């Protein structure tokens, strides 16, 4: 797998290649904005971007994937050591000069710097083809109608997840494609640079607490069990994300510690700050969705 840290500001949109990702994590960073950690395995685009810098929580999110992690640099020098602790193959723009990996970064003409750094992802994947494939990161039900939320959940036709005062992640259920479609706050479709609207078969919300690490707001993932909300098939169920087994895939479980089953397809994982967040400038997020004509709001 190729995991790439990608910008998600108005200056960085539309991103190149994001619609092809198998798994995308949306995480809060400093300034109240979010960035994506996009994981490609089933299909790897020719190019992906704009590539941005790594953050401490990325180490917990990519550790169980194996493969390659691509980022532009680090916000603080010690963050590089945190990420190196994952044991993954790191491809960092700031340290790749003079290496074969360095030649795969390039400046796109689509946008001005720093929103124009891209990676030749398909070529990079070919150069690391000897690395093992990732193990499954979650549990899946082959029949989408039997996935946990679709089978036993309550109606959830639209989703709005608040990360900060200025950032929301907005999704609408589309029965025709059997996916949730992503929208911007102004109501327009959130698209890849090729015009493809970003979509997900499963939208999953984790509620980690954000702490200050190396002066950066960072989601506490490793060693935690916190609330998770799963949206699949236009319905939703709640449970937990379990990251207590270091190095193992993060589990999604119900209240009886049984796996919450996702439907096969793309999965978007949103990480708004939980109620116990203490990082400077970070306030707890919220999740709301339309259920049978009523708005259900959940503080987290």
Number of helices: 4
Number of strands: 21
Largest β-sheet summary: 11 strands, mixed
Q: Which term fits the overall shape?
A: globular
| N- and C-termini, Cα separation | 31 Å
Structure write-up:
The chain is mainly beta. Helices cover 9% and strands 35% of the residues. The chain has helices spanning 56-62, 77-84, 121-127, 148-152; strands spanning 2-7, 23-28, 34-40, 68-71, 89-92, 105-107, 117-119, 154-155, 158-164, 167-174, 179-183, 199-200, 202-206, 210-213, 216-219, 225-232, 235-242, 251-253, 267-271, 286-291, 294-299. The strands form four sheets. Strands 1, 2, 3, 4, 5, 8, 13, 16, 17, 18 and 19 form an eleven-stranded mixed sheet that branches. A six-stranded antiparallel sheet has the order 12-11-10-9-20-21, with no helix packed on it. A two-stranded antiparallel ribbon has the order 6-7. It starts with a strand and ends with a strand. The relative contact order is 0.17. The model has no long low-confidence stretch (mean pLDDT 96).
Quick description:
This protein is mainly beta.
Write the layout of secondary structure elements.
Elements: E1 2-7, E2 23-28, E3 34-40, H1 56-62, E4 68-71, H2 77-84, E5 89-92, E6 105-107, E7 117-119, H3 121-127, H4 148-152, E8 154-155, E9 158-164, E10 167-174, E11 179-183, E12 199-200, E13 202-206, E14 210-213, E15 216-219, E16 225-232, E17 235-242, E18 251-253, E19 267-271, E20 286-291, E21 294-299
Parallel strand pairs: 1-4, 2-19, 4-5, 13-19
Antiparallel strand pairs: 1-3, 2-3, 6-7, 8-17, 9-10, 9-20, 10-11, 11-12, 13-16, 14-15, 16-17, 17-18, 20-21
